[in-house]
Design a protein that fits this description.
Largest sheet: 8 strands, parallel
Number of domains: 2
Strand content: 15-25%
Bound molecules: nicotinamide-adenine-dinucleotide
Shape: globular
CATH class of the largest domain: Alpha Beta
CATH architecture of the largest domain: 3-Layer(aba) Sandwich
Order of helices and strands: EHEHEHEHEHEHEHEHEEHEEHEHEEEHH
Structural class: alpha/beta
CATH topology of the largest domain: Rossmann fold
Distance between the termini: 26 Å
Number of helices: 13
Radius of gyration: 20 Å
Number of strands: 16
């Protein structure tokens, strides 16, 4: 069993912890919090040993009825690998500790590529991970872009990508960021950082991205155009998506045309925390013009799509499962992510 520590038990960390606990070949040996919060109670409820950065706060936790297993360093020492899901920029500060303890670590998209020196996506570069101590799972938007670009690049070759990201303003619980009523250019300059981020995984792709933020909390919406190298048809493209285990087609017959309806659907499916782990590509929007021009809309659940990627990244860095497809299958099966 791979012993996994989760440093930072927030939006991403708590989901990764549950996903680790669901795998047959991994266990959660601890999670960390900096202060008493609802998430600390959830860690207790799930039975995850809770570690804290500053042991002087032990009494505050214990007064709140939350047992403290020790400090973060003790958690890291007991782990084979750490998933760092602390807020963007904190991972960089944590890296020297992982180096000192000789631990493998996975950072999230809020860190720069250089913090890990290797950016990861399970379908695109799983096999390259084994020679690295550190990896970074690219952000939610970049994960969604890499999946669809890589799938079409493998099938038809991608000459260039132009994409517009309409981004959620905040995560659902992030009350300090709202309420908001605006469409904010993010940034007003072109390109946005997403294209260069895609290039950290797929360096050969010609991509330009634009982004704006809108007042919603559930999912980003991408409007994507790609020029393909080979002529194809809409039916062939749909087949590529149907055969991809992390690209889901939002079928025309469902009548779903928004993030709100998709949220209701994932909730009705009984998905934990309404998580949509796969790209939600709107079937109706998939279009091929003049044989080579591809268009679509896709929804990306910001809190969820990086979660299975973190799980595969654990196996890839540890070198325990050599075949990417086997790891992806194991992860999907354990999560209940059916193609
Ligand atoms: P979050 O604020 O929800 O959670 C971060 C957690 O880390 C909190 O529990 C906090 O208590 C804890 N923490 C803070 N400082 C710490 C420290 N010094 N040591 C240990 N724990 C500490 O953040 P998040 O949204 O889960 O984001 C985590 C990372 O994942 C960031 O890099 C972010 O960019 C990336 N990411 C976030 C999303 C998203 O939509 N939320 C999507 C993809 C990637």
């Amino acid at each position: 069993m791979i012993k996994v520590a989760i440093n930072g038990f927030g939006t991403i960390g708590k989901r990764v912890a549950d996903a680790v606990a669901a795998q047959p070949d991994m266990e959660v040996i601890g999670v960390s919090k900096t202060s008493v919060s609802a998430e600390a109670y959830i860690a207790k409820e799930r039975g995850y040993p809770l570690y804290i950065a500053d042991l002087s706060k032990r009494e505050t936790f214990e007064k709140a009825g939350i047992e403290v297993a020790g400090d973060v360093e003790a958690m890291l020492k007991a782990a084979d690998i750490v998933v760092d899901a602390t807020p963007g920029g904190v991972g960089e500060k944590n890296r020297p500790i992982y180096e000192r303890l000789g631990k493998k670590a996975i950072f999230q998209g809020g860190e720069d590529h250089e913090v890990a020196g290797f950016s990861f996506n399970a379908h695109a570069n799983y096999k390259e991970a084994e020679k690295h101590q550190f990896a970074r799972v690219v952000s939610c938007n970049s994960t969604g872009l890499v999946r669809i670009i890589h799938a079409l690049d493998q099938a038809f070759g991608v000459a260039r990508v132009r994409a517009v990201m309409v981004r959620r303003a905040a995560d659902p619980d992030d009350v300090k960021r709202g309420p908001v009523d605006a469409i904010v250019l993010n940034p007003a300059t072109i390109p946005s950082h997403h294209g260069p981020d895609v290039n950290t995984v797929l360096p050969h792709i010609n991509i330009v991205t634009l982004a704006m933020i809108v007042p919603t909390t559930f999912m980003h919406m991408h409007s994507i155009q790609m020029d393909l190298k080979k002529e194809t048809t809409r039916e062939e493209v749909l087949k590529v998506f149907e055969n991809h285990s992390r690209i889901g087609l939002v079928r025309k017959a469902t009548g779903i045309k928004s993030n709100a309806q998709l949220r209701e659907y994932t909730q009705d499916l009984g998905r934990p925390r309404t998580d949509l782990w796969e790209n939600g590509v709107f079937e109706e929007s998939v279009s091929i013009l003049d044989g080579k021009e591809f268009y679509c809309f896709q929804a990306i659940h910001q809190e969820a799509d990086v979660v299975p990627e973190n799980i595969d990244c654990i196996r890839a860095l540890m070198g325990t499962v050599k075949d990417p497809q086997e790891s992806i299958r194991m992860t999907n099966e354990a999560l209940g992510l059916v193609a």
